């Protein structure tokens, strides 16, 4: 009798093993095996991390092995099981791999195809075509989008239809919900930071700027301590617009805006090249940060005992002869006039410092809501939902994207449940809490276009493209060209075209401004599109997420809220006004607690050409990592956030 040797790998995460009955059926082009119980006498099968082998005997050869069907049936009580993969050795000695990486819950069955990627037009038999369609039909029932009339927040990118983490499909839940429980982790963070006794001291101001060290002493590191020592300096203020957590707001100034009437006479003492302000603009030495999007956003009113304030400042920056970026003018509103003075470095020390603090507070709000939440988390979830609904596991683009959207939907759902929900953690300390964050994201959505997610367009006029992106683009291009031998092959792929259309029509809800494509005609267009997704979920998120503790933990450098209105005239500021404007002890502690929350691990590809492309990509990333480490040696402010060894695959890692 022909014998097939089946090897089953159980996941190594907690509770991955099972005591339930596991059955297997092998499906070939000629016939199927009988449903076979996988069980060894006097042996504990399918333990966590185990790799077990079994013989499946058949009357006749099955032909070419096409599918493997796995069933789980209750033994005593329902016992979920995580299957990593199955390999089958045929009677002729060939090995076939069937990636799974899925949970089997209740009395569930799952049908697997071998690990080779296939485009829909490559499938010729009705058996595999039907399997492909059944998988997509099941996914579309499981991964439901929120209906537009019930959307979590109107005007946001479309999200998953789940009120809580436990409502999500098991395969995209965190292995341990406690691991991403924001409330539980928050309590741990507060305890670790030893700021428990400050938590409820709302309305209680610090006695002076140095007093902030009382909650800073437990969290100092090389960068944060340097920030604490130098945060008042213009160099440190300007440096953060390129190297801090939010390096996306600064733009090269090609024309001085009318709403920001800075004159040469105001800033001449700050210019070093013997040029007028207008000439410095023409020479490309003037930059602008403008927080116009915050204008009109309602400040947090959840605490009736504490007024909180927002401002929409503008700041003019100058690249001096030493190539340092320095602030030369600040206006704390969008409408010029007597009540909106332009603050200058030549003004009183406290006036200038308070103006810079207001800019840093606005930058914090922009970063938290737009740069981080909207443009990495919510945008990646939109791509993820479309991927699950339109691409089967056998599609090469599904295999490419899956590691980069891993747990994105889960962490976003948990955030909607505990972090950014009404009366959630975000409301405790942020000036945009209490609904302002919703307004801000709705407003910012109007500037989200496909081109705005393309990194070269984002940094145009600021700096050259990053080596990581070049290598990433090459890697994605290699994968695309392995499976699509021509542009016509791409155009004939109904699934990828449905994925692209889903993102625009449902994810972005066909917003007129979004300019997301509804179809792709060339392999280069697909390469750019997929590079945007991978970059957004990995490097972009790493750049704006992992430096938060470094740059935001010294609270005067990034106030999460302001308790006095922005000054409407010069000469008002003194140390007392600055202290009364900054967050009180309670909000400072909540702010720190929130900050404290803060590679293709599963081989879905098995083809040698793709594995070779992945290995080449890994080597290129290792070279970038080495060069960044070398460049950072001896620097007082090393920058590691875009080092490949510091970039996780997805926003949830």
Automatic annotation (TrEMBL):
A biological process from GO: lipid oxidation
Name the UniProt record assigns to this protein: Arachidonate 5-lipoxygenase a
Cofactor note: Binds 1 Fe cation per subunit.
Cofactor(s) it depends on: Fe cation
Cross-referenced PANTHER family: LIPOXYGENASE (PTHR11771)
Site feature: Essential for stabilizing binding to COTL1: 103
The keyword Oxidoreductase belongs to this UniProt entry's keyword annotation: yes
Domain Lipoxygenase per the UniProt entry, residue ranges: 117-653
Cell compartments where the protein resides: Cytoplasm
Alphabetical keyword list: Calcium, Cytoplasm, Dioxygenase, Iron, Lipid metabolism, Metal-binding, Oxidoreductase
């Amino acid at each position: 009798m022909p014998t097939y040797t089946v090897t089953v790998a159980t996941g190594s995460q907690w509770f991955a093993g099972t005591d339930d009955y596991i059955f297997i059926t092998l499906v070939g082009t000629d016939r199927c095996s009988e449903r076979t119980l996988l069980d060894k006498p006097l042996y504990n099968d399918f333990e966590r991390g185990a790799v077990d082998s079994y013989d499946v005997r058949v009357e006749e050869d099955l032909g070419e092995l096409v599918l493997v069907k796995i069933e789980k049936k209750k033994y005593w009580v329902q016992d979920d099981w995580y299957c990593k993969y199955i390999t089958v050795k045929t009677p002729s000695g060939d090995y076939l791999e069937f990636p799974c990486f899925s949970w089997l819950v209740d009395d569930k069955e799952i049908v697997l195809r071998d690990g080779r990627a296939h485009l829909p037009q490559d499938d010729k038999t009705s058996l595999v075509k039907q399997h492909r369609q059944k998988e997509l039909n099941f996914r579309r029932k499981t991964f439901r989008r929120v209906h537009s009339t019930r959307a979590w927040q109107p005007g946001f990118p479309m999200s998953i239809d789940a009120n809580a983490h436990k409502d999500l499909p098991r395969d995209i839940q965190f292995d341990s919900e406690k691991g991403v429980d924001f409330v539980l982790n928050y309590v741990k963070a507060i305890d670790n930071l030893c700021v428990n006794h400050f938590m409820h001291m709302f309305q209680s101001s610090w006695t002076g700027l140095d007093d902030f060290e009382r909650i800073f002493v437990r969290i100092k590191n090389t960068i944060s301590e340097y920030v604490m020592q130098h945060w008042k300096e213009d160099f440190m203020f300007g440096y953060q617009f390129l190297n801090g957590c939010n390096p996306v707001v600064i733009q090269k100034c090609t024309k001085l805006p009318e709403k920001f009437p800075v004159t040469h006479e105001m800033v001449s003492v700050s210019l070093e090249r013997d040029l007028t302000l207008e000439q410095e603009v023409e020479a490309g030495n003037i930059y602008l940060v403008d927080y116009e999007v915050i204008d009109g956003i309602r400040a947090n009113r959840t605490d009736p005992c504490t007024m909180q304030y927002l401002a929409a400042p503008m700041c003019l920056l100058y690249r001096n002869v030493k190539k340092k970026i320095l602030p030369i003018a600040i206006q704390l509103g969008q409408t010029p006039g007597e009540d909106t003075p332009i603050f200058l470095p030549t003004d009183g020390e406290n006036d200038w410092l308070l103006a810079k603090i207001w800019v840093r507070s606005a930058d914090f709000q922009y970063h938290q809501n737009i740069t981080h939440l909207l443009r990495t988390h919510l945008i990646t979830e939109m791509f993820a939902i479309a991927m699950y609904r339109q691409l089967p596991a056998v599609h090469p683009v599904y295999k490419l994207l899956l590691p980069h959207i891993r747990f994105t939907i889960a962490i976003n759902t948990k955030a909607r449940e505990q972090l950014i929900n009404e009366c959630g953690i975000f409301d405790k300390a942020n000036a945009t809490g209490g609904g302002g964050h919703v307004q801000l994201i709705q407003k910012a959505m109007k500037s989200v276009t496909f081109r705005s997610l393309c990194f070269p367009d984002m940094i145009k006029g600021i700096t050259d493209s990053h080596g990581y992106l070049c290598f990433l683009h090459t890697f994605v291009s290699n994968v695309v060209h392995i499976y699509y031998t021509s542009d016509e092959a791409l155009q004939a792929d109904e699934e990828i075209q449905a994925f692209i259309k889903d993102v625009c029509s449902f994810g972005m809800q066909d917003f007129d401004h979004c300019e997301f494509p509804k179809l792709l005609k060339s392999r280069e267009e697909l390469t750019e599109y997929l590079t945007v997704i991978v970059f957004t979920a990995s490097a972009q998120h790493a750049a704006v997420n992992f430096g938060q503790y470094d740059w935001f933990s010294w609270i005067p450098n990034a106030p999460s809220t302001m308790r006095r209105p922005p000054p409407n005239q010069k000469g008002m500021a003194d140390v007392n006004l600055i202290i009364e404007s900054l967050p009180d002890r309670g909000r400072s502690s909540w702010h720190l607690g929130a900050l404290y929350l803060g590679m293709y691990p599963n081989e879905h590809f098995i083809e040698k050409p793709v594995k070779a492309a992945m290995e080449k990509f890994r080597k290129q990333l290792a070279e970038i990592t080495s060069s960044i480490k070398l460049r950072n040696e001896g620097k007082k402010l090393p920058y590691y956030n875009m080092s490949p060894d510091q970039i996780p695959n997805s926003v949830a890692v």
